[in-house]
Design goal:
With about 220 residues, the protein is α/β, with parallel strands linked by helices. A 6-stranded parallel sheet has the order 3-2-1-4-5-6, with helices on both faces. Helix 1 links the parallel strand 1 and strand 2. Helix 1 crosses helix 5.
């Protein structure tokens, strides 16, 4: 997989190294060439100096052939512009933007750009989104019995009760993220398109979660 990362701060460098260690083709963009020192000597990817939303810079980075683009610079505006250019101009399918101002998340999501907040586990969330290979687990208890998963609302469940979806998954709904706002759902909440559902489920059900929920609510 070819991934482009805009921003070589702490999160960007960590994500680049993690992707590189996993065998992916990685290109890192930053306007400050000194920032690339964070990558370390063992980094096997490529670096491009420039503004991450500049089309010429993105072309040099190979955005036209990229599978994923992560905008993780220190500027919210730069991240969203770069993410939109990567998606709309270069057709990159998997695009995500890091945000500092959570209030802007609703705007980003209306533009079709998934976001990740500045939190300690941001790098792990970004890695899972970019690679789409490590599953939806956000947290697992020390015994490994229970996992907290982040799940995009399955289309077949739109209009059904959030609690019913959680029960079908064998767990409970811990939180509901909608238009950039997260809250504890109640019995009246119905699943909407583009919701992000946070479910507490038995760990041994995580691998089959997608297929379990794929057919939608039971007619019974």
């Amino acid at each position: 997989m070819k991934a482009i990362i805009m921003g070589c701060g702490r999160v960007g460098a960590a994500l680049a190294n993690d992707l590189g260690d996993a065998g992916h083709d990685v290109v890192v963009i930053d306007r400050d060439p000194a920032a690339f020192d964070r990558l370390g000597r063992d980094f096997g990817g490529r670096t491009v100096t420039g503004v991450g939303f500049d089309r010429d810079v993105l072309t040099e980075a190979g955005a036209g052939r990229a599978d994923a683009f992560a905008a993780v610079s220190s500027g919210d505006n730069s991240n969203i512009i770069a993410a939109r250019v990567a998606r709309e101009r270069f057709g990159v399918e998997r695009v995500i933007a890091r945000i500092y101002d959570a209030g802007r998340a609703e705007v980003y999501e209306r533009l079709g750009i998934p976001t990740v907040a500045t939190v300690p586990w941001a790098t792990g969330r970004l890695f899972r989104y970019v690679t789409d290979s490590a599953g939806p687990v956000d947290w697992r208890d020390q015994t490994g019995a229970v996992s907290l998963v982040a799940l995009a609302a399955p289309h077949a469940w739109v209009g059904a009760r959030v609690d019913d979806l959680a029960a079908a998954a064998g767990g409970r709904a811990a939180a509901l993220s909608r238009f950039g706002r997260c809250r504890v759902p109640d019995a009246r909440d119905l699943v909407q398109a583009d919701d992000l559902l946070h479910l507490a489920v038995p760990t041994d059900t995580v691998e089959t979660l997608e297929s379990t929920l794929g057919e939608g609510p039971s007619d019974e």
